[in-house]
Design brief:
- With about 190 residues, the protein is of the alpha+beta class.
- The chain has one domain: 3-Layer(aba) Sandwich (Aminopeptidase).
- About 35% of the residues lie in helices and about 25% in strands.
- It contains six helices and seven strands, in the order αβααβββαβαββα.
- Helix 4 links the parallel strand 4 and strand 5.
- The relative contact order is 0.12.
């Protein structure tokens, strides 16, 4: 397993949990990634909640100290909800998505059995990413972020999530779970 400091010093990338001081950076990234495309951006209240209260499963990726991407998620009981994964245009196709996903999967691997995503139908890159993680498209939800908004809802179910975790372990991206030792059972013959 790689040491986060080693990754940072070799590649210039750092992925960290969100904290209150990241609020302005996230609002700027929202504007740069979504606002520039004419999309709606997340409201400041939502971003503030992520920074102040839900940072355990939300991440900011920096390259050479500059914010270049983020992932927002929530965990409820044994389910995770990945609500936003965004990367500035000049860092799309780089390590940014991989590093954010590694941090996210590491943070939820022992806590959840499934993970949900929503995506616009025309966002083929995100849909392909979700599929590569083992997600299955479950349907379309109308009015998700507003009256005219439609989102495809996909889910990594328990079986697919176990496979994802196993793959991350094999690649050394997650620490292997300690396997329980085999229990010896003896039977006494009775006559």
């Amino acid at each position: 397993m790689f040491d986060r400091d080693q990754i940072a010093s070799v590649s210039g990338y750092i992925v960290k949990n969100l904290e209150p001081s990241d609020f302005a950076d996230l609002m700027h990234l929202e504007e740069e990634v979504f606002g520039a495309e004419g999309e709606s951006t997340l409201g400041p209240y939502y971003v503030r909640l992520c920074c102040d209260f839900f940072g355990q499963h939300c991440f900011l990726c920096l390259h050479d100290g500059k914010p270049v991407g983020y992932l927002l998620s929530f965990v409820r009981e044994r389910e995770a909800y990945c609500t936003t994964l965004a990367v500035v245009p000049e860092f799309q196709g780089t390590r940014t998505v991989h590093l954010l996903l590694r941090a996210f999967v590491s943070s939820i691997a022992d806590r959840v059995d499934s993970c949900w995503f929503t995506v616009k139908e025309d966002n083929k890159a995100a849909r392909a990413l979700h599929a590569s993680l083992g997600a299955t498209e479950m349907g379309v939800r109308t009015g998700f972020y507003g009256p005219d908004d439609e989102r495809i809802v996909s889910k990594i179910d328990a079986v697919a999530f176990a496979k994802l975790r196993s793959r991350y372990e094999r690649l050394g991206l997650l620490e292997r779970r300690s396997r329980p030792a085999a229990v010896a059972v003896s039977y006494e013959a009775t006559v």
